Amino acid sequence: GCVLVVSVIEQLAQWHNSTVKAAVERLCDYIPGKYQIIHHLSCCIDREMNADVVCHSLRLCKQDPGQPLCHLYSPPKREKHSSGLFHALACARSKHQIRSKSFMGFSSVCAFPLLANLCEKMKYVLRNKLPFQDFDGDKFSTFPTLRGYHWRGRDCNDKNTTVYPGRRPDNWDAKSDSNCNGIWGVDPKDGVPYEEKFCKGADSKGVVLLGDSAGAHFHIPPEWMTVTQMSAKSFANLPMAFSDELDWPQFSEITGFLNSTIGGWTDSLYLRLRKRNRCNHRDLQNISQNG
């Protein structure tokens, strides 16, 4: 991630024939919110260092004991062998020693007592693939990202553990919508519950997608990496994408339920199922993960 950001900054500077500082300001104008991490990176970029050297000098990239030094680009031009990377790294660390130490404190944000509990909850959520916000503990949420309803059906009552998408209707949902498909109540003409009238014989299918990043619809839009296409509009979805681990399950060919902003209409299995039978609305879950 660090190498990609530094690479984009270098490309922006070259494309607009500007300084690194100006390129950083341009990128920050594109990105929603204030991502101060980019300002830290900009301090250490100069024409003698490539992105690998910058990120290793800031200790955002690490080398495992006994393993080669990981790098994305070729070593600096003035050195033909891999030792050139070590030489450039040694020079960079001595040059930016103070900045590197201050950046290490920034990257260890979870060490702060006020944020420690939040970090632990985030780790628990990601490890167990559970919604970050789930007030009734039924594993369904009214919040879209962080394993929320972008991934599973949307909870229509997050204060009642017996109400969640895909469950069997409670007494044909005569009094309330227990399975979140939007169908409940009684037809006053004949006294038959709408769920029974429309959905009898169309029981919940409980379709679950287990898979990797393909099922999760992992996607990095080209305009995030292509300086000639960058604009504030191209980064509008960045916060949402990061909180969904750069996955777009709401646009997936399996579980997608929204019109895609990253490549046309989503003709998904879920939308086809929903078109055939509204009784199964939100009766499809995605618990895929990257890797």
UniProtKB/TrEMBL annotation:
Superkingdom, natural source: Eukaryota
Signal peptide (UniProt feature, chain positions): none
Keywords, in A-Z order: Hydrolase
The Acyloxyacyl hydrolase N-terminal domain, residue ranges: 1-120
GO biological process: lipopolysaccharide catabolic process; negative regulation of inflammatory response
A molecular-function term among this protein's GO annotations: acyloxyacyl hydrolase activity
Family matches, as Pfam families: Saposin
The protein's name in its UniProt record: AOAH hydrolase
